[in-house]
Design goal:
single chain, alpha/beta, Rossmann fold, 6-stranded mixed β-sheet, 4-stranded antiparallel β-sheet, 14 helices, 17 strands
């Protein structure tokens, strides 16, 4: 029987239109806009200024504080300005704008395609290389990876999980990486295992990717410490807490973190970036992005440099269909709508989804009919209808007491609600306000 998490979950249409399309390298843009805040935590501090000439892979933003991340130039060229620029969320972030010329890389980067399987560095050296390379979680959260690998005093990690689930509908960047860079991914995974001094590695992949399961299982035969597990197709199987429960049976406590149960989880893209950083001295300057949608002419998986304008990706996939009503950064369940494609690819950009107008319009929401469907599908065991009502009425002490901060924002409640109520929107607002109250309390 396939493993899965026991509580809640939904089954949205998968629509993996681009799953069979190989990763395509996109040409360099004329200019790139590289935000200095592409991660959770403190923005990096610029190390360049207007008029400077930079090379591909050069440091242009230095991490500031523990929870922060280095930023590198993804191109070579001239710095036009260091100024505020819009990101995909609609916020203005300090960014480095570079005019692209020849693609000249810093000399320490190994650009060969040779596979380097032998691990010759220590655990501390691995973590330092990850810090220097600016590696963050590539599944969307963009949490600095060196922080996740710094296990707090008194805690111990005994299982490392590689998240190859990619349960979000439409997105296929991780799927293609597993098929095309499987060897490198598992070497990267073993590097993280060494850094954490972990002897057991588990790879979780949803059963709708049988080719990836077969491919990684075959490679993993070389490594007795690794095992690949097919998982039941159920959203949000790729949530950290759900994946941990499915693979290990351990349950992360309310308000807790995976390390509280001895587990660390990393994404497929992160493992590949770790391989590049440690074995090739290559910082995180490019990533795979899926561009897809029901009416997109050429659903694609593009390898693109960080800072590339999103409109260049959409044009390469055939342009915006005439009947498009909404463009989403990410997938349909957890992604966020954008009002412009004149914004850059960042480390956390996993996909661009173009939704037809007829599917993009929200239906009028009606009074709650107390059907309890939102409760039955919540993977965290919350009561979404109640949290929405409490937020509407601004009863934030109850919002906190009823564990709104445990919400993983998967959107299952809004998806299933027959009254079309914007449950997740209100829960996000409630979480934000509770977070403010907690910070003020401290």
């Amino acid at each position: 029987m396939l493993k899965s998490f026991p509580r809640g979950g939904v089954h949205p249409a998968e629509n993996k239109f681009s799953a069979g399309n190989q990763i395509t390298k996109l040409p360099l843009p004329k200019t790139v806009t590289i935000p200095l805040s592409q991660h959770i935590g403190t923005p990096a501090e610029p190390t360049v200024q207007r008029g400077d000439m930079v090379k591909t892979g050069q440091l242009i933003g230095k991490y500031k504080g523990f929870v922060s991340s280095n930023i590198h130039s993804s191109v070579s060229g001239k710095v036009l300005k260091v100024d505020k620029a819009l990101d995909s969320s609609g916020y203005k972030r300090t960014s480095v704008v570079i005019e692209v010329n020849e693609d000249i890389w810093i000399t320490k980067i190994d650009r060969s395609s040779d596979l380097r399987k032998e691990i010759t560095v220590s655990g501390d050296e691995i973590i330092n290389k990850i810090l220097d390379a600016g590696i963050v979680g590539m599944g969307g959260a963009a949490f600095p990876s060196h922080v996740k690998m710094s296990v707090p005093k008194g805690k111990k990690c005994d299982i490392l999980i590689l998240n190859g689930v990619e349960c979000e509908p439409y997105l296929t960047s991780d799927h293609r990486l597993m098929l095309e860079k499987g060897e490198e991914i598992l070497v990267g995974f073993r590097l993280v295992m060494k850094a954490l001094n972990v002897k057991k590695g588990m790879v979780g992949i949803e059963n709708n990717k049988p080719d990836a399961i077969s491919h990684l299982s075959q490679i993993a035969q070389q490594y007795p410490e690794l095992e690949v597990f097919p998982l039941k197709v159920k959203y949000p199987q790729g949530g950290e807490k759900q994946l941990i429960k499915a693979l290990t049976g351990r349950e992360v406590p309310s308000g807790g973190l995976p390390i509280d149960v001895g587990v660390v989880v990393h994404n497929i893209g992160t493992a590949y970036a770790v391989y590049d950083a440690v074995q090739k001295n290559k910082p995180l300057i490019e990533r795979v992005v899926t561009v897809t949608g029901n009416d997109v002419k050429k659903p694609s998986n593009f390898l693109v440099r960080i800072g590339t304008p999103l409109n260049q990706l959409v044009e390469a996939a055939g342009g915006i269909p005439a009947q498009t009503g909404k463009i989403v950064n990410g997938g349909p369940m957890m992604g966020k709508a954008m009002n412009s494609l004149e914004v850059p690819v960042t480390k956390g950009t996993s996909g661009i989804l173009l939704i037809p107008e007829k599917e993009s319009k929200r239906k009028p929401f009606r009074p709650c009919i107390r059907c309890a469907k939102c409760i039955s599908v919540c993977p965290m065991g919350l009561e979404p209808f109640l949290l929405m009502t409490l937020t509407e009425k601004e009863i934030f002490d109850r919002v906190e007491k009823d564990k709104a901060l445990d919400c993983i924002e998967c959107g299952s409640c809004s998806y299933i609600c027959p009254a079309n109520r914007p449950l997740l929107d209100y829960i996000r607002l409630g979480k934000f306000r509770v977070g403010q109250i907690i910070r003020n309390r401290k």
